[in-house]
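Title: Request for sanity check on Mitotic checkpoint serine/threonine-protein kinase BUB1 beta prediction

Description:
We are preparing a figure and want to confirm that the structure record we downloaded matches what your pipeline produces today. Could someone re-run it with the sequence below and paste the raw structure tokens into this thread? We only need the token string, no images.
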Amino acid sequence: REFESEIRFYSGDDPLDVWDRYIKWTEQTFPQGGKEGNLPAILERAVKALHEQRRYYKDPRYLSLWLKFGNCCNEPLDLYSYLHSQEIGTTLALLYITWAEVLEDRGSFKKADLIYQEGLQRKAEPLEKLLSHHRQFQTRVSRQTLLGLEEIPDEEDAGLLGAAEPQRSSLADLKGRGKKKVRAPISRKATNQNRSFQTLTSQQLSNNPGFAVFDENSAPASGPEIPILTPQPWAAPPAPRAKENELSAGPWNSGR
């Protein structure tokens, strides 16, 4: 009640401060969430109340409200695109880190790298934090890519396997050596295209134009031009999840 009264009769020059304290208090008082805290509704009210305050578009507190509100949306990627189109938080590293991590969790590695590079090109602050997260992302992607590739034995191992199992069927599985379970290629005579794909290294991945790696030591003018995301003409922020006690639309003749 005190926060609601302060919001209603606030006459100061920083209304974001009241909403920021209100939301932090709600998170601390109701850490498990639920209808008692009603956090999604407060976040929705906050972003709508401050939407016309363009002076907050570069404020980390305001971006934090939006990102928390994104967790209440059915599709947070739509909300990140909306923030980008409205230039909300585009100078802050947190937007690109959060956006890229969601894409990475969904397996969209190229799109996640594009988001990181967009933030690096804009020199989003703090830049060191953004660089650190981008390096960690590249390490994870390289490791996952290398683990996902099929192991090809060298010529000596291939000769030994051929001598030991002259009658082996081409579709039979080979037993991997060591603790890790490895599946050998089905066909011994792989094409040049398959062999080149299977022997990719992290260094070769970095030379692929579809997966450009940001080089912090090279001057921006001398390096390749980083593609820029195309803003979408969002008229309003995405709708949050259906609120409690609200029925979703459905056939009228099938329910009781």
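Thanks, this matches our download. Residues 155-174, 184-212, 218-228 have pLDDT under 50 and may be disordered.
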